[in-house]
# Entry
Amino acid sequence: MKTADVTAVANAGMSAGLTNNYLTPNDPRVIASTKVVGGGQSASVTFPTAKLTKGGDYTFICTFPGHYVIMKGVLKFG
Ligand SMILES: [Cu+2]
# Structure
């Protein structure tokens, strides 16, 4: 997602709950997502780069409630 959308997406995801993997279904701000995974587990995701703009400001987060504050990273495309 765009970095500017992180807080709003995370807060909306909290309301969506575990059954929705803490994401609002079909949230247009979310470029790609995985299901919730536990500690020691892994997940991968594939998405078309056409959804990105070169030099754009993107962040990936964990949407489990409260985690996005520290469980996050930057996606660079350019
Ligand atoms: Cu997390």
